Structure formats: structure tokens, C-alpha cells
């Protein structure tokens, strides 16, 4: 009995030692040792006062957000996980707050009573990596952010737009090839998992995209193709060239074709009839303390029955489309026949504070009348260097704009002339990030 008990104790001791060693090996593996977590606090206020379609509308939303992100290392140098939690608290809102993309619209219509906060696990995916012949492979499956991934992108307020699906690619020697397939999304201001939809509310099964890229010290280019099933097909060519240390040139071409489900919609639900294209050029001059960027763009998006056509940035409702032209400003500057000029200048006044000026002006013709739109914004960005504040960034922007009186986005003409509308916009963001481990 004594020998048996002793043998049992020895076996238990050996098992415990082995188990402890196994646990230690796992905890010391790169999956845990290379993992890290980050906490972000963001205060966001966005404002617009305009009178384009009504006597006056104020669109105002203010919220406080929290983001907690965890990224593991790789187990067996192959597999890992990422998790990101987001929450938002309502601080203030007006009617039409939902156009600002900051707070959750928890109800029908545009009433400020619908404004609410939210919480969600916006990203949760498995990640894989590998190496074949010197080429790096990667893949992700689950809810994830896709930023300028082929024709798919995201937008961020208190949280980013995320997608359910898979993505992956291979890269080596300056070349890259990647693709994505998504079926659902969560908007930047919502915890709801939504299916992709047409403009008239019918479901789209999936959105798929592929992209071929090449990059070296002077040149960076991407050729992308994508399709929202039976709805829209798109091709994008984006290029940038660094002439020298100061001058950079860029160009983007976006082409979109209507497919069967798009053509079946009523004309009032379509952005264009059959094809829509957008062409853009830009140049940037960079000095140590200041920079200036200028751009020009032109849009073709014909639409019949006397209605004004638009180039649609997005491939469906509940998704976001890749669009890096300086015409990026809602539907402004992307109307049929519209030519747009833009500039952005900034100056680093101190090592911590940068101030700047941004302006856009566009013009198109509607039934023989010249219609002009534009805006001017002053902005400032503060990034303190004090050790206790080095992870803080504060940004503010405000300025006036002008557009045209419209009915269902189509200009209202009086005696053959468009009628000017005025707007005032503002934005404030204060974000503090710090690593937990």
C-alpha cells in the first residue's frame, strides 16, 4: 500500500510538473508574448446648418466613444485572433442628427429623440499568415475593417464600418495581390448587423473585390475590380508618383457599370442610368514646415428624364466604397458634368500645432444653367509632446459653404437660373490612445 501510494504521488507530481511546463510553454509562446491591447477614448462633435432643400435644417451630433482593441501574436507562427470592442454615449443631438454618422438612430425618421449610444464587438476575426518562396501570405475571416481594400473601404466616427467575410493576399518584390468577399456590415454609428441592399431595399447576396498593386520608392499603384452581385460593377486605377523629395503627383480613375438589379430600379432610385465615371488628378508640394495640395476632378454620370445624375461612391447600401479623390465630400463635386477644383494647405506653427485651410469649388450645367458649389474650411490640429499627453490628438475644423436650392437633389431653376443655398459646418475631435500591454 505504501509503495502504491508513493507511486501515485510520484505520478501526480510528474503530471503536474509536465502540465505546468505545458502551460508555461503556451503562455510564453508568441501567441501571448507578442499580443498587445490598446484603449482609445474619442470625443466627436459634427455640425451642419444648411438650407438646400428646406428653409433651414441643423444636423448636429455629439458623442463620447471608447474603443478597446486586442491583437494576439501568432500560434505556431501561423494563426492568431483580433478582437475590438466599441461603445458610444450620446452627449447631444438635434433633428437630422443621423446624417452626421456619430450616434445610433434608434427609431424611424430624423427626430432627435431617436439619438442613442451603442456598444458592439465590431471586429472579431481569425488571422493567418505564411511565407511561400519569399512571398508573404495573409488571410482574415470574420468581422473586420477593410480600408481601401479593392473597391471596398470603411469610414470612421466613434467606431469604424466593419464587414463580415474574408480577405487575404500575397505580397513580395513590390507586387501585391489581395481580395475580399463580404456579406454583411455594421455601420460606423450602429451595432446592427445588416445585409447589403440596393437603393430600393432589395437584398444583395455579397460584395466581392480583387486588387493588383505595385510599389517602389517612387511609384505606388493599384488596379482594382469589384462587383456587388447583379447590382454594380466597378474598376479603379489609382497611381501616385514621387518626383523628388518635395513634389508628388497622383491620379485616380473610377468607372462603374449598372447590372441587371440596378437597371430594374425606378429612375428615382438610381444615381445614374448605365455608366458613371470619375477622373481626378492631384499634386502635392511638401516643405519641412508647410505643404500644399491641389486637385482637379471631372464626373460623368448621365441620368434621363431631366434628373441630375451622381457618381455613387458606394457599391450598395450598408457598405463603403474606396474613393481617394479630393472630391470626397458626400455627393458634392461628383454630379454629372461637374468639374471640381480643390486645395489644401497646412503650416506647422509649432512642433505641436498645425493650422490649415481647405477649399473646394465645383461647377456643372443643368438645362443650360451654370450651377456652382463650394466650401472653405479652416482647421487646426494639436498633438502635444508632453510625456503625459503624447498620445492625445485634438482636431477642429469649421467654415462656410454654398450650393443650390434643390428638389430631390435636382436644381430648382427660376427664370433659367439656379438659386444659391448657404451652409455652415463644424467638426471637433479629441482622441487619447494608450497601450494597456
Question: Can you put this structure into words, describing what you see?
Answer:
The protein is mostly beta strands and 437 residues long. The protein has 2 domains: 1-29; 34-435, Porin. The chain has 3 helices and 28 strands. It has helices at 2-27, 30-33, 260-263, and strands spanning 36-50, 57-71, 79-93, 104-105, 115-116, 118-132, 135-144, 152-153, 162-172, 175-186, 194-197, 203-204, 207-215, 219-228, 232-242, 247-258, 275-286, 290-300, 320-321, 339-348, 353-366, 369-382, 392-404, 406-407, 410-411, 413-414, 417-418, 420-435. The strands form 5 sheets. The chain has an 18-stranded antiparallel β-barrel. The longest helix has 26 residues, at 2-27. The chain is globular.
CATH architectural category of the largest domain: Beta Barrel
Total strands: 28
Query: Over the alpha carbons, how many angstroms does the gyration radius reach?
Result: 26 Å
Q: Into which percentage range does the β-strand content fall?
A: over 45%
Q: End-to-end span in angstroms?
A: 51 Å
CATH fold label of the largest domain: Porin
The largest sheet, given as strand count, sense and whether it forms a barrel, is: 18 strands, antiparallel, barrel
The number of domains is 2
CATH class of the largest domain: Mainly Beta
The assembly state of the depicted protein chains is single chain
Overall 3D shape: globular
The percent range for helix content is: under 10%
Low-confidence stretches: none
Mean pLDDT equals: 94
Q: CATH homologous superfamily of the largest domain - what is it? A: Porin
Amino acid at each position: 500500500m505504501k509503495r502504491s501510494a508513493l507511486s501515485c504521488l510520484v505520478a501526480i507530481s510528474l503530471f503536474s510538473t509536465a502540465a505546468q511546463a505545458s502551460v508555461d510553454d503556451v503562455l510564453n509562446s508568441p501567441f501571448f508574448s507578442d499580443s498587445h491591447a490598446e484603449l482609445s477614448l474619442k470625443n466627436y462633435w459634427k455640425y451642419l446648418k444648411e438650407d438646400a432643400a428646406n428653409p433651414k435644417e441643423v444636423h448636429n451630433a455629439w458623442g463620447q466613444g471608447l474603443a478597446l482593441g486586442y491583437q494576439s501574436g501568432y500560434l505556431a507562427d501561423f494563426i492568431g485572433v483580433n478582437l475590438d470592442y466599441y461603445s458610444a454615449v450620446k452627449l447631444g443631438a438635434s433633428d437630422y442628427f443621423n446624417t452626421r454618422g456619430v450616434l445610433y438612430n434608434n427609431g424611424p425618421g430624423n427626430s432627435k429623440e431617436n439619438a442613442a449610444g451603442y456598444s458592439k464587438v465590431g471586429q472579431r476575426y481569425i488571422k493567418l499568415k505564411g511565407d511561400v518562396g519569399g512571398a508573404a501570405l495573409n488571410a482574415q475571416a470574420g468581422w473586420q475593417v477593410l480600408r481601401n481594400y479593392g473597391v471596398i473601404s470603411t469610414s470612421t466616427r466613434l467606431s469604424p464600418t466593419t464587414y463580415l467575410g474574408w480577405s487575404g493576399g500575397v505580397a513580395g518584390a513590390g507586387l501585391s495581390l489581395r481580395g475580399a468577399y463580404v456579406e454583411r456590415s455594421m455601420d460606423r454609428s450602429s451595432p446592427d448587423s445588416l445585409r447589403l441592399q440596393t437603393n430600393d431595399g432589395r437584398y444583395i447576396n455579397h460584395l466581392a473585390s480583387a486588387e493588383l498593386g505595385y510599389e517602389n520608392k517612387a511609384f505606388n499603384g493599384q488596379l482594382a475590380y469589384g462587383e456587388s452581385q447583379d447590382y454594380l460593377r466597378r474598376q479603379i486605377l489609382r497611381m501616385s508618383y514621387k518626383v523628388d523629395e518635395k513634389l508628388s503627383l497622383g491620379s485616380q480613375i473610377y468607372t462603374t457599370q449598372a447590372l441587371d438589379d440596378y437597371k430594374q430600379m425606378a429612375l428615382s432610385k438610381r444615381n445614374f442610368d448605365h455608366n458613371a465615371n470619375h477622373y481626378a488628378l492631384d499634386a502635392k508640394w511638401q516643405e519641412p514646415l508647410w505643404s500644399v495640395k491641389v486637385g482637379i476632378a471631372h464626373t460623368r454620370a448621365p441620368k434621363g428624364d431631366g434628373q441630375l445624375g451622381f457618381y455613387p461612391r458606394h457599391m450598395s447600401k450598408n457598405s463603403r466604397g474606396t474613393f481617394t479623390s479630393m472630391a470626397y465630400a458626400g455627393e458634392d463635386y461628383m454630379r454629372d458634368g461637374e468639374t471640381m477644383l480643390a486645395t489644401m494647405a497646412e503650416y506647422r506653427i509649432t512642433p505641436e500645432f498645425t493650422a490649415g485651410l481647405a477649399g473646394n469649388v465645383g461647377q456643372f450645367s443643368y438645362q443650360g444653367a451654370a450651377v456652382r458649389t463650394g466650401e472653405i474650411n479652416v482647421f487646426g490640429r494639436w498633438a502635444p509632446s508632453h510625456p503625459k499627453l503624447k498620445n492625445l490628438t485634438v482636431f477642429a475644423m469649421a467654415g462656410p459653404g454654398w450650393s443650390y436650392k434643390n428638389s430631390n437633389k435636382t436644381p430648382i431653376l427660376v427664370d433659367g437660373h439656379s438659386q444659391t443655398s448657404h451652409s455652415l459646418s463644424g467638426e471637433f475631435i479629441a482622441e487619447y490612445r494608450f497601450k494597456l500591454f
